[in-house]
Design goal:
Elements (H helix, E strand, L loop, with lengths): L3 H15 L7 H8 L3 H13 L3 E4 L5 E4 L8 H8 L21 H18 L3 H6 L18
Antiparallel strand pairs: 1-2
Helix pairs in contact: 1-2, 1-3, 1-4, 2-3
Length: 147
């Protein structure tokens, strides 16, 4: 439904939100979230450009959320790196179709609209505040302190 890039962005932002204003380096986030550091660095740049996270230089530098978790929607994160594909007109370029989508593309567009709506009304705060079952998803994983 969403790309791996979008999933990485979501995981990174949720992880940063769980860190309570403690800057985390790309390497630290990558280790904690089980993502490749090189690819994550590109994702983090996109999130910075979109104004969702900020970077701090220096000894205690790293990435932080730019706003409170309750102000960041999942749709904003996804749109920053790889927006959900919509079908405003015939994706095959058939001129006679114009804005009338075939049944397949109409259903795909409707599904994308539902995902967008769900992501627009869901904030990062909701994801980090939801209690987890003991045996459910163990994300985010806190890596051991660096040596």
């Amino acid at each position: 439904m969403i790309s791996q890039t979008a999933e990485y962005a979501l995981r990174a932002v949720v992880y940063l939100a769980s860190q309570k204003d403690v800057p985390r380096t790309t390497a630290y986030v990558a280790e904690a979230t089980k993502m490749p550091a090189g690819y994550l660095a590109k994702v983090m740049q996109s999130l910075c450009r979109a104004g969702l996270i900020q970077s701090r230089r220096g000894l205690n530098g790293g990435f932080l959320l730019k706003n409170q978790p309750g102000e960041i929607t999942l749709l904003a994160i996804v749109n920053a790196v790889d927006p959900i594909r919509r079908y405003p007109e015939c994706p095959l370029g058939i001129v006679s179709h114009g804005r009338r989508l075939c049944p397949l593309h109409r259903r795909l567009d409707e599904a994308a609209a539902m995902v967008e709506a769900a992501f627009q009304k869901t904030t990062v705060a909701e994801l980090i505040e939801t209690p987890r079952e003991p045996k459910s998803c163990r994300f985010p994983i806190v890596p051991p302190p660096s040596k």
